[in-house]
Amino acid sequence: KSRGMDVWCETEALNGGGDAVQAAGQHEAARSCLTEALTLADRIGYRYEQARAHQGLATTCAATGHQDQAHQHWRHAQDIYTDLGVPEAGHMDAHRLGGLGSIPVTPERA
Questions:
Q1: Is the separation of the CB atoms in 59 and 65 below 8 Å?
Q2: Most buried of 76, 81, 86, 96, CB within 10 angstroms?
Q3: d(CA 2, CA 100)
Q4: DSSP states of 31-50
């Protein structure tokens, strides 16, 4: 297995781990996993996992009272999902953001 594929798998695993510990209420552990996932995804240009990391970080930030950061991550995730044309663009999981609500897709994002 090449190192490049290892990094892709590691990015996916970090996002999954971040989601799991976030669901267990371990916000700092989630932030750590998701930040590392975002760093790796940025480095290798893995846009879908960038969006997943931003979405997870939005949830973590909202859960810890950092609403401005949550909105920034939310917008990054939505923009990337929209650019990729994946279903996640149309149905971001707003209720997981602890009351942040959804950010509508504007025509320039559609």
A1: no
A2: 81
A3: 40
A4: HHHHHHHHHHHHHHT-HHHH
The pLDDT of residue 9 is above 80 = yes
Question: What are the residues whose beta carbons fall under 8 Å from the beta carbon of 43, sequence distance 6 or more?
Answer: 7
First-residue to last-residue Cα distance in the chain: 37
Interhelix angle 3-23/27-44, rounded to 10 degrees, is 150
User: So what's the pLDDT on residue 101?
Assistant: 52
Query: Amino acid identity of 17?
Result: G
**Closest residue by Cα to residue 72 from 87, 89, 54, 60:** 54
Q: Are 78 and 97 in contact (CB under 8 A)?
A: no
- List Cα–Cα distances, 105 to 75, 92, 99, in angstroms: 10, 10, 18
What is the share, in percent, of the chain residues with pLDDT greater than 90?
Answer: 72
Task: In whole angstroms, give the CA distance from residue 32 to residue 84.
Answer: 25
